[in-house]
Design a protein that fits this description.
The protein is mainly β. It is built from no helices and 11 strands. The strands form 2 sheets. Strands 2, 4, 5, 6, 9, 10 and 11 form a 7-stranded mixed beta sheet that branches. A 4-stranded antiparallel beta sheet has the order 1-3-8-7, with no helix packed on it. Strand 5 and strand 6 form a beta hairpin. The protein is elongated.
Length: 119
Amino acid sequence: QVQLVESGGDLVQAGGSLRLSCTASGSFFVINVMGWYRQAPGKQRELVADITSGGSTKYADSVKGRFTISRDNAKNTVYLQMNSLKPEDTGVYYCNADLTVIFGRRPYWGQGTQVTVSS
């Protein structure tokens, strides 16, 4: 059984900051890529940022320069520092982890955490 538990979502004013956290637990051998996706009302889920086990990062163009993804491999945790938040950043943020389990590599998702940015 694998679990991804997210925290940190909140209501914040435009220009503010939030830090999201996601911790993986359960039966797995390796955490490969960890990332954050978001889904705004009426829109498809989109990649916000991801990070490999070696620390290579990728960002959506809309968040470059404002968001920073990082991970603590010892704690099986990925973070998303979000600065200069805009109303268009509003949505449910989902943690994703590409894990190597007994059956091979599988993607896992967290339950989502709500981020609301007011103008």
